[in-house]
Structures are given as C-alpha cells and as structure tokens.
Amino acid sequence: MITVNPDGKIMVRRCLVTLRPFRLFVLGIGFFTLCFLMTSLGGQFSARRLGDSPFTIRTEVMGGPESRGVLRKMSDLLELMVKRMDALARLENISELHRAGGDLHFPADRMPPGAGLMERIQAIAQNVSDIAVKVDQILRHSLLLHSKVSEGRRDQCEAPSDPKFPDCSGKVEWMRARWTSDPCYAFFGVDGTECSFLIYLSEVEWFCPPLPWRNQTAAQRAPKPLPKVQAVFRSNLSHLLDLMGSGKESLIFMKKRTKRLTAQWALAAQRLAQKLGATRRDQKQILVHIGFLTEESGDVFSPRVLKGGPLGEMVQWADILAALYVLGHGLRVTVSLKELQSNLGVPPGRGSCPLTMPLPFDLIYTDYHGLQQMKQHMGLSFKKYRCRIRVIDTFGTEPAYNHEEYATLHGYRTNWGYWNLNPKQFMTMFPHTPDNSFMGFVSEELNETEKQLIKGGKASNMAVVYGKEASIWKLQGKEKFLGILNKYMEIHGTVYYESQRPPEVPAFVKNHGLLPQPEFQQLLRKAKLFIGFGFPYEGPAPLEAIANGCIFLQSRFSPPHSSLNHEFFRGKPTSREVFSQHPYAENFIGKPHVWTVDYNNSEEFEAAIKAIMRTQVDPYLPYEYTCEGMLERIHAYIQHQDFCVAPGPALPGAHTPQSPFVLAPNATHLEWAQNASLAPAAWPPAHSLRAWLATPGRACTDTCLDHGLICEPSFFPFLNSQDAFLKLQVPCDSTESEMNHLYPAFAQPGQECYLQKEPLLFSCAGSNTKYRRLCPCRDFRKGQVALCQGCL
C-alpha cells in the first residue's frame, strides 16, 4: 500500500495557493520568453550557411545588433521579474505568518514555495545573460566572415556593360547616392553594398541583367495564373452593398440608389444574357478605387450630399459598381489610401519601389485622384500596369493634353493631363469626346403603365428649376427670363436651406427645399418643364427629367464656353467648346424633348415658352442610358478593349502589300475593300471604317457627325500612310512625319501631306484652318453611339 507524506500534501497545497493568477502569468511570460529566445537563436544558427547569398548573410548580419539588443532586453525583463517575484514572496511570507498565528520560523523542509521559483528564474536569467554573450561573439564572427565573402565577390558586383541594359550603371550610381531616401529599398534588402544594388536592380526592378552567381530559380518563378472562370450574370445585389462599405454620406447615397435600381438591373441582365446567347465571358478581377472619396484627396463631396451638392459623380460611380457586379466580375472596392495600398501590395516606404507582388487585378477603375495616388505609391509598377487602368473622367481628356512631352512643348499641359495613357482609357459621362470611351450612367426606366400614368397626371403650367444650390441662382439677369416664365407657369425650386429661405430665390418661386430622390422624381412627373440656368454642365438631372416626361429648356452659349473664356473649364484637359448647358441633350435628343434658346433674347425665350406649353411629349430615355444599354457597353469594353497589347497597324513608313481601301462610288470618301483581309486584332472591326477628308478648320469629330457617323480614333493607324491620300486623289508634293495631334492632314497651300509620328496623338478633336484632316469614321448602333453595328 502506498502512503502519502502529509508534508508533501501541505507543500503542494501551498504552491497552488502561492501561484496566484498574476504569478502564473509572470511564470508564463518567462517560459514563452525562453521559447521565443531559443526559436530566434535556432533561426540564426540554421540560416548561417556559407552557400547562402549575400542577401541572406546581409539580412542576418544586419539583424545581429538587433538580436543582441533583444537578448539584453530579455535578460533585463527576467531580472525585473526576479525582483517582482522576490517582493511577492516576501508579501506571501508575511501573509503566511499572519495565517500561522505566531509561528515565527520555517523548518528546512518547509521553505516558502516562492523560494524555489525564485531560484529557477534567477538561473534562467543567468543562462540568458551567458547566451547573449556567446551570440554576440558568434555574430561578430559572422560579420568578419561576411566581410571576407564580400571581398571574394567584389569583382562580381560591378555594374555590367550590357547594351540591353543601358541604364544599369546610371541606376547603380543613383542607388549609391539615394538608397536611403526611401525605406522601401531596405525592405527589399538594399544595405548600401554594390551587390545589394545590383540584386535589387535586376530582380526587383529591371534595369540591370541578372547576376550569374545568383540563384535565379526563385527570382524567375512566376505565380501560376488562376484558372479562368466564366462570368455569370447576377441579379441579387446584396453582396455588392456590403462591398461598397459605409460611414460616408456619399456611400449611403450610392447604396440607396443601387438598392432602388436592383429590379431594373436584374431585368437588364436577363435581356442582355438572351442577346449574347452562348458567348463566353471570362470573369475579370476588378479593383474599383474611388479616389475623390478618400480623406487624402479632401473628400469634398460627402459633406455636401445632404446640402444640395453635386451628385453626378456619385450617380455614375454607383452605376459603374452595379454594372460590373451584375456582369459577374470579381469586385474589390476601396475608398481610402490605406485600403488601396493593401490591395495593390505596396511595400512600406514612400512609394519609390515596385509592388511586392504581381498585380492581382485584371482591371482597375479609378478617377484622376486615384490615378495620382497610384502613381505615388506603385513605383515602377505603375508604368508596368497602367495599361489596366480605366479613368472615370467626367469632361474627357484630349490626346494633346494626355501626351506629356507634346503637352509641355505646345502649351497643353494642365493639372489633370499628361498621363501618356491610351486616350480610350479615359471614360466619360457623356459621349462628347470620341477620343475617350463613353462610360455613362443610367436613368430610371419607366414601364408602359407608369408612362401612361405620368401623361395623365401632368400639370400643363408647372416648371421646375435645375439647381439645388443657392449659388446657382445668383445668375445675373435671371429675374428677367424668370419673370417671363412666371407669366405662364408656376415655378418650383428644390434649393437647399437650413433655417431661412435663400435670398437668391425669388419670392414667386415655390421652394421645396432639398428633396430625397424619390420625392424629386415625383415632382418631375407632375411638371411640364425642367429649366436650366446654364450650370451645372452635363449632369444627369436633365435626362431624369426627360425620362419622366418633362421638356428640358436650356440656354444657348454665344460665344461657346471653353477653357479659353470660362473659369470652370480652365485647367481641364480639353479644348472642347460647349454651346449649351447640356450638349448631349441638344445634339443627341433635341426637339421636342429639348429646347435650346438664347436667354438674353426675351422674344425668343417667350416664344419658346408658348411653344412648349402647346407641345405634348412622352417620357423618353435613350437606350444607352438604360441599365441594359450600360451593361451592353461595359461588356463590350471588357471583352474587346486591351491596351496592354502592342499596337497592331503600322506607323508611317511601313506599307502593306495591298491597300485595304477603295474609293467610294461617289468619290467622296474611302471604304474598306470587301476583298481586303481584316486586321485580326482590330476593334471596332475594320470593315466599319469610312474615311473622309475634312474641310479646312473642321475637326474630325464634327466631320464624321456631318455624315451621320462617329469619329473612331482606333482607325487612325490604318489611314496614316501616303496611300490613303493617293486613294482620295489628294496630290502630295511632299510627305513628312511629325508629332502633331492634327495629323494625318493635308496642308494648303503647298500640297504637303503630314503623317502622325506618335500613336498617342491620334486625335478626333482639334482643328486648324491650315489643314484638311484625314478623318476615320464608323457607323453606330441605334441608341448606342459607343458601339458600331458589328461591335457587340
């Protein structure tokens, strides 16, 4: 039979009483500190192999003083723990004395239980101190070894003279002087040695050739591309609402809009799926970074959402997110710089280095603010991946402003241009700039029942003013034409105010204050007229009014507004002249839905009001501004636009064996020959090309519109040859190639033909009375000017 010593029981019981939670915690800290110490030392010793690269040795040697410092801190921590435990033991002794009721001494086999623990911790602290000394000696030996290895490889770490890498030596010189300017270089292993410079410049960046003595297996191992997944249309947008985030008034507005339009997106997806049939659509991984909503850009929009501020940008972004999601693509949404850096894989530092990983996104949709943020933080990766970027650009960017060198030399440089992107990467709110891609937005589409209800509920003498901010009502001369309008119609406003009626709003105007979107829609459904004051330019509200059965009345600008004469357009990367508040409504919709008159001419204005009151219109919405129209357009862009491939057609001087053009039967323009082979990568398809010679001083944009066509800048390379002029029977006494956004063109007098030298400068926009421009035009689908008849 086994007997148990009663003294042993007492010892165990006292140990359990003594080791209270705090002391258990301290003991645990000591134990885990020791584990961490041994793990760290094990990593140091196991990595110390002579066969390792200089980077490996450098990393560990640089970590030597750091490791010694950690060891010292551990030793100090354990010493502190010893002192704390000593104090706790004394307190325990006192409490034991009180509990013993006067027992003033302990026998030798009944020592306080804290004493044994104290001895163990003191032993651990002494061992850590001894280990620290030994590790210090080993690391000093490693430094000496590293120095010898570096001496042996010094001849292998000189900048090579390789004609394929002409910038290598210059970059090494730059690294010598500036490698400490950004912590990201140290993050990638640069330590001030020649070897680290060359390894960085050959393996992280690509200015130097790979070093022959480096193990290239790891450096060249690219991640396997993910298997392609077919995109499937989505109808439930609840997950998208989660992706959009929260916390900003702008995001709340966008989410409400998306939720309100969910049923229309679902119906549009069903229709487009039927139209596309079995067409395979690969799912793209897409990052959407809304730069103007980031705190770093100021986020001036969110605070104004509830105060009548502009909502056009947020309307468009909400619809872009919905369209991409409904089309079935993988989506990531960021509205902060920190989120952007995390998703891109930006290394720590100031943005001088490339990304830490290959870009995980096929496409990035952003704005000018986001574009600037990416350039600041992506280093050389920005240049590598910028072909994947799509820039949402309300007013457009013309090629002359986009090309950095050309813009600088010829006075086109602004705060927003000079990005050297393909101009089609800029995506506009309206199709006013064919050099860019038309992105657009959507307006709510009414069914037949709703249209009939609206027609029956219209007030024949009710007008609503376009303008929610009081500043818009400060327009000089408004009293004159509003007085005329007031004779015929009851005028309503939706001007934001907090406590008092805005003094800018005349007393005869019934102001409803800022209305939520559903209530504003109801107001439009009752009104006969929606009238603009000339600002804001090209917003979504006029289309919403027309879709709800209103007639839109706007001012004609004479002279037209542009960056030359109007502060609003000054600094924007476009020379476009705006002849009215809403050129799209004037040119693509027109009467009876849109009337454009001179507000300064009282007789013309009053006559227009009388005519409008007699005019009956049905609610109308262009197809390209329906959910289906936007889905169709973005689908085509994602499927066919690829700006990462090398340019297809040849530049000046390269001649095709047989010209693909023939002169049209009426001898006015060129057409693609029926027996000519099509350019395999051309989109839009080359057979839709029609080439016209513009009259002097006429831009290609206007020339194509004159013939019921759209200018197509991607066709310029096909025309950029002397053969095109010869086919049009234009005599060229001389032919030259230069950088000019008006070329190819024919100059009179002199009979000189000019070809384009820089592909990024092919431009539909721009004119000069000296030149007759050679203009590529194409047809377009009814209600969808962005796509040719064979583009889908």
From TrEMBL:
Its EC number is 2.4.1.155. GO terms for molecular function: alpha-1,6-mannosylglycoprotein 6-beta-N-acetylglucosaminyltransferase activity. The chain crosses the membrane at residues 21-41. Its main location: Golgi. It catalyses: N(4)-{beta-D-GlcNAc-(1->2)-[beta-D-GlcNAc-(1->4)]-alpha-D-Man-(1->3)-[beta-D-GlcNAc-(1->2)-alpha-D-Man-(1->6)]-beta-D-Man-(1->4)-beta-D-GlcNAc-(1->4)-beta-D-GlcNAc}-L-asparaginyl-[protein] + UDP-N-acetyl-alpha-D-glucosamine = N(4)-{beta-D-GlcNAc-(1->2)-[beta-D-GlcNAc-(1->4)]-alpha-D-Man-(1->3)-[beta-D-GlcNAc-(1->2)-[beta-D-GlcNAc-(1->6)]-alpha-D-Man-(1->6)]-beta-D-Man-(1->4)-beta-D-GlcNAc-(1->4)-beta-D-GlcNAc}-L-asparaginyl-[protein] + UDP + H(+). One of its GO terms (cellular component) is Golgi membrane. It is a single-pass type II membrane protein. GO terms for biological process: protein N-linked glycosylation. It is found in: Golgi apparatus membrane. Keywords: Glycoprotein, Glycosyltransferase, Golgi apparatus, Membrane, Signal-anchor, Transferase, Transmembrane, Transmembrane helix. InterPro entries: GT18_cat, MGAT5_Glycosyltransferase. Residues 184-777 form the Glycosyltransferase family 18 catalytic domain. Pathway: Protein modification; protein glycosylation. PANTHER family: ALPHA-1,6-MANNOSYLGLYCOPROTEIN 6-BETA-N-ACETYLGLUCOSAMINYLTRANSFERASE B, ALPHA-MANNOSIDE BETA-1,6-N-ACETYLGLUCOSAMINYLTRANSFERASE. Belongs to the glycosyltransferase 18 family. This is alpha-1,6-mannosyl-glycoprotein 6-beta-N-acetylglucosaminyltransferase. It comes from Theropithecus gelada. The gene is MGAT5B.
